[in-house]
Write a structure and sequence with these properties.
Pfam families: Pkinase (PF00069)
Organism: Myripristis murdjan (pinecone soldierfish)
Number of strands: 12
Number of domains: 2
CATH class of the largest domain: Mainly Alpha
Shape: globular
InterPro entries: Kinase-like_dom_sf (IPR011009), Prot_kinase_dom (IPR000719), Ser/Thr-specific_kinases (IPR052239), Ser/Thr_kinase_AS (IPR008271)
Radius of gyration: 20 Å
Structural class: alpha+beta
GO molecular function: ATP binding; protein serine/threonine kinase activity
EC number: 2.7.11.1
Length: about 300
């Protein structure tokens, strides 16, 4: 891990003895900033994510995010080009250098479709869903879960290849809950780290003796699929109105009718969004269903733009 230099007057930084020019701000969150930078040596654009670490725990969380990126080498999971920790004025920052994906997030693509009064063709939905499932399968096969899957955490390459990002909420897939205190700890953690309108039902009221596993991601995957079909998440409006999402997720998801998508895709959505995690399928089953739908997807869908 190389020495990092602060942003200097010429607007450049150095990570691992390579210099990058600051271009512009991209995004700003509660504890992180994302800037567009250009590599001086390679001329490539990167997204520089700077995570503010307020304490030792914050630094450990940032370190975990780095390790999660390093664990995976997969076309549907965002890679890490370089990283370093910087101490400035008694405060610590983690700098993660990530590939810059020009097309942006799945959410931004869906927003543009909504603004145009258009919708996403089924073939495109299945292509993106297949890639998300491939990335999730890799994560689950390694014994981890993403825990914050949503359209803003899926980037799209020019060929619509989805790339899962924001691995900061990832943890072990299987969490055994023993007692009320542990249940409350996980519930509080989920409230902070798992976006409310994409959060699995079992994370709202964690039972005192249960097992939380990777099927929390399957629920979120269902919400993402719904969002691709309807151009808004199934619980977005409920949350915006201030109504209880925790209550709403206990009921079967309703697919607005008439629906222009195939019965097969609607049935897949209903199969994924099951409130009881014990009855929810695993990623292998979902991937099989997606591949089956892709093989049967009619050519007419390509004209549905």
């Amino acid at each position: 891990m190389g020495q990092a230099l602060c942003m200097c007057s010429r607007g450049s930084i150095t990570i691992d003895n390579k210099r990058y020019y600051f271009i512009q701000k991209l995004d700003e969150g509660g504890f992180s900033y994302v800037d567009l930078v250009e590599g001086v040596q390679d001329g490539r654009f990167y997204a520089l994510k700077r995570i503010l670490c307020h304490d030792r725990e914050g630094r450990q969380e940032a370190q975990t995010e780095v390790e999660m990126h390093q664990m995976f080498d997969h076309p549907n999971i965002l890679s890490l080009a370089a990283h370093t920790f910087v101490d400035r004025g008694g405060k610590s920052e983690a700098w993660l250098l990530l590939p810059f994906i020009r097309k942006g997030s799945l959410w931004s693509v869906l927003e543009k479709l909504r603004d145009k009064g258009s919708f996403m063709p089924e073939r495109q939905i299945l292509h993106i869903l297949h890639g998300i499932c491939s990335g999730l399968k890799t994560i689950h096969d390694r014994g981890f879960a993403h825990r914050d899957l949503k359209p803003t955490n899926v980037l799209l390459e020019e060929d619509d290849r989805p790339v899962l990002m924001d691995l900061g909420s990832m943890n072990r897939a299987r969490i055994e809950v023993r007692g009320t205190r542990e249940a409350m700890t996980i519930q509080d953690w989920a409230a902070q780290r798992c976006t409310i309108s994409y959060r699995a039902p079992e994370l709202f009221n964690v039972e005192s003796h249960c097992i939380i596993d990777e099927r929390t991601d399957i629920w979120s995957l269902g919400c993402v699929l719904y969002c691709m079909m309807m151009l808004e998440g199934p619980y977005d409006l409920i949350f915006q109105k201030g109504d209880s999402v925790a209550l709403a997720v206990q009921n079967p998801v309703a697919i607005p009718q008439p629906c222009s998508y195939s019965e097969g895709l609607q049935m897949l959505l209903s199969s994924i969004m099951v409130s009881n995690p014990q009855e929810r399928p695993d990623i292998n089953w979902v991937l099989d269903q997606v591949q089956d739908l892709q093989s049967r997807s009619p050519d007419i869908q390509t004209n549905m733009v």
